[in-house]
Amino acid sequence: MATVEEGPLPYNLWQGESSSSSSSSSNPTDAVLFGGISLLIGVSCRTLLRRTTIPYTVVLLVIGTALGSLEFGSNYRLGKLGNGIRIWADIDADLLLAVFLPILIFEGAFSMEVHQIKKCMAQMLLLAGPGVLISTVLIGAAVKLSFPYDWNWKTSLLLGAILSATDPVAVVALLKDLGASKKLSTIVEGESMMNDGAAIVVYQLFYRMVLGKSFGSVAVLEYLAEGSLGSVIIGLVFGLASLFWLRFIYNDTLTDFSLALTVSYIAYYTAQEEAEASGILTIVALGMVFAMSKDTHRAGGKQSLHEFWEMIAYIANTLIFILSGVIIAQSIFSIGKFEDNTGRSWGYIFLLYIILQAARTIVVFVFYPALCYFGYGLNWKEAIIIVWSGLRGAVGLALSLSIKGASGDPKYLSSETGAMFVFLTGGSVLLTLIINGSTAQLLLSLFGMDALSENEETMVNYAKHQLLRKAEEFSRICSGSNNPFNWRTVGGYATCIKDVCEDTVWPPCTTNHGYLEIDDIKTIRVCFLKATREAYWSTFNEGRITASTISILMESVDEAIDLATQGLHDWNYISTRLKFPGYYKFFSTSVCPSSLTRWFVLNKLQDSCHICSAFIHAHRIARQLLLDYTGDNGNAAIVVAESEVEELEARKFLENVKNSMPEIIRQTESRQVAFSMLKCLDECLSDMEKDGILTEKVVLHVHDLLQNDFEKLLRSPPSVRIPKPGDVLSIHPLLGNLSPAIQSDLERSTNSILKTPGCTLYTKGSKLTSVWLIGDGSVRSERSPFPIHCPVDSTYPQGSILGLYEVLVGKPYLCDMVTDSVALCIEIKLESIISVLARGNEVEELLWKECTIAVSKLLAPDMFKKFSMQEVRGIVDERSVMNTFSSQEVIETSHHSINLLLSGCLRDQSTEQLIECPAILPCSILSESIPYASTNIMGESSGSYSYSKYKVVKAAKIVQIDISEA
Predict the structure, then answer these.
(1) At CA 82, angle to CA 80 and CA 87, rounded to 5?
(2) Of 25, 301, 361, 413, which is most buried, counting CB atoms within 10 Å of its CB?
(3) pLDDT for 338-360, tens place per residue?
């Protein structure tokens, strides 16, 4: 049997075999040990500092500095841990940035609110663009004039560029710990990310100049523009391509995470190495593109996505802050090789810290008027917080390490200069993080920016009373229990409601069942809008709205919260998004393929219906919740009334869509019902799984089938069927009665076009080319053909034939015809109509009768607007008579009828006025606003005429419509 000999442990964590041979026995895997110990330290710090106001990143930096000091500044080496520290401390600066920055910058940009970014963009650009340049000049000039290092202006400005930008890694970590307001966090975080990217572009410019490359003023501007704008463009391209890819992924969070992580690294490498741009700005743009789409994730997926990025950002933060401390310690002890008096060097670090704060203060207050004007504005307290949040961190350290690695040539950058860059940058990072980072919470408290407002205090008390009521309810349930327990012991753990408990003796007893009373109507509106937002989320997770609509709904809530002092304005934002943009008119032209037009227009219309339905549903839920919590008090009643007015507007939109394109509403409802059915089936499957009826293999199999159905519904929802021209012609009351041969000839010359609202079919006086049949939707007439004061504005719904009258009389178009909604317009070529007219008098009479419908609505809009299209057609079919009169005949009108002059020319015998077609002849029921009418619409004579006589000048065709019973 083999024996085991005792001996030393094969692996000693802290102590190498001997101090003299520790460096020679260094193993690359020792770097893993340092990473593991760093993460363990990070978890410990987060646990110990959880309920304190000390930012854990500051503690990590101090611990890293202590570890580095033990390894580099003392005789007590840390063995294999020390070997790992040295491996990490000697890491290439570009590799350091490439490993950590894509994760940290992407997480920071992704976690920001898009709405806040839009509002604060001008402020961020001011501080990140001109602010960086001013700060670079100020710091560089101060270093050149105050420090005794005999550096030229280029070298001084290079150090100024490194130190000019606040570090996004440090700032984001600090603000998350302190819980600053969202507005302030957005400005500081966004500015830090952008100005760090801009500073790297400036740094690269001066770095090349220090190494001997010359730039003219124009070349400098071109370089800065290309470096910044090019970076943003690369980020946008990668972001949009990624979102397009994600459209083909359904319910696969692993792929979502992997794609975002992969693209962030590839985009950074492409910008930084291949395009020689700023990788940071690229990642900022990429993260913001992903942030704009994060609302399209379902609740579980969105939560997982945030947790994933928070986890990897936490790991990266822990490693980079401890490593920064190690590098700072290394720079402190290595500067002694070049400086005889290191105490003096520390004095210059403190001087540099003062310079940094002064430069930051100057930049912020130079732009203070503009910062107050743009976005949400800014007060002096917030400006001071922005100044104090100017932390320096790992990015500046990495850039200084790059300078150190490139130094060595006395002509350009000496080794002493490279070491001094790392020392000064490391000292600045250490001081800003320790001094500013540790006192930022104190400053927030001093300004009262972390305190609860009066309304928030009211909400806290209300929440505590609600918890007290729940405790009372629980006590009643437990009162009948036979198990012995001590109520005072139980109550001792419910300290959160101790100050509102009306009874000092448990079980609790309270008579406060009141409502939440808030006097500020703005707060009531904000609460209502947040309840609306949660209702939107529920609707989205239930599948009642699509991913393409949830972003608009969320944005409407954010916009309305900003305007909460003025009323509820979420519908105002939504209504602007429901309108078809101007470029959609291109899709309504014959240049664009009809299939592409239908896809764009119908998708837009379906999304609009989804938005309106979700808006109505969410507002109903929010109104009920508001009344449940606040009661029907004055402010709540006002907000409820405002919500009801907005709901009415949304209902009008849906009603208009239903009237113009009923198939849209039908298919929208079908999609929602289909999803609800599949959701019900999924819940049924889950119930059977919980009850243990099905085996795991069976559940997985059926679940996969259900997921396929869900994905099919997402990819191919119920489509809207657009009728073909032949179908529209066959069901038309007139054209459907024509012979099959004529219908076939017409169909061959038709062109079906789906037009958006506001598209012009034809204009007044233009050359006659086509006749238009309205298959769905409606159009309206504009620009009256008559010289009257009241403009003609008649609406022509489905089934109307426009331009036919002009064909029969040989005139140009009488007025403008513009689509009033999304309309399916069937264009029939002029040649085809002329060929139909040649088929015989019977067909011509049918066409004359059909054109009477359009002409009557054009000439007498006030009379016929109260009738539907079907009713107008019935009146013309049953109560109209068409007569043809020869020249020189005398005609007498009847006061019981409307007489329309369709062709020819008449002369009024009483006034000798010449009347040309088309015209409406006076009768006793018409308004004076109608051409040549002499009586008003109430039947009261406006003159002495009950009838009129006309002499036919040119052969005339007159339609007499009996409206005595209409």
Answers:
(1) 95
(2) 413
(3) 555 556 777 888 999 999 999 99
